[in-house]
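Structural prep section.
Before we set up the soaks we want a predicted structure of the protein with iron/sulfur cluster in place, mainly to decide which crystallisation condition to try first. Input record follows.
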Amino acid sequence: MVARPGAGWPGDLATARTPVAADPAEVVHLASTAKTLDELTARQSVCRACPRLVTWREDVAAEKRAAFRDEPYWGRPVPGWGDPEARIVVVGLAPAAHGGNRTGRIFTGDRSGDWLFAALHRAGLARLPISVSATDGQELLGVRMLAAVRCAPPANKPTPAERDACAPWMLRELELLRPTMRVVVALGAFAWAAVWPALARLGYDVPTPRPTFGHLRETAVAAGPLVIGSYHPSQQNTFTGKLTEEMLDAVFARAAGHAVWPSPG
Ligand code: SF4
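Run finished without errors. Recording the tokens verbatim:
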């Protein structure tokens, strides 16, 4: 079972009348014609353009992990979430099968999110240090989170075709956030690579060749946002010590410090 649009899932902006993208061309059309973040959010959340990912996310939602067998699963694309006038945009890879794909909110209900929300809270960018469900009272302060690919992929690995199919959702979201966006934090190399084509499509003069990903590596886009790389707070990185709390805190301290700057243009 997946959450039916308009059936009362907390925060669900879609209804039975929300148009559904059935292929990549329809993603382009529905993303580019969404007039507001709410409209974009609703449309993203019912997308069915990638058959492999639709099957995977819905199968996961039907089978469930044993620890969550009594909980409903979202089982739909996980849209961007947070402050509609965000100065900091955090970009991840894709929702986790039993995290965002379960709770319906990005980075909510998984170990990566535990690290991420704790760090955002320490930086004064999230109201609570944890994020466990769509009704937990969490609020992002000047931050919006989104994923480069909106559906949970098997083994956390979307195909290049799926990445490209989903790109218009992020492109339009960044376009709608553009008036306030000062900083983009890319969590991991996949997100880092996805950000540059989107900024180029928005007309920013992005460097060629593209800047190399690294932790705390940053590039100031002319008349645009400061793009900061961060190791992804995946269990692989946090368990091994590749990413520590101090390292993640340094990213958000840098982001928060820059975000207070006035618009570059
Ligand atoms: S990954 Fe993106 S384009 Fe593909 S079905 Fe999910 S929301 Fe749609």
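Observations: The chain has one domain: 24-259.
Flagged for discussion at group meeting.
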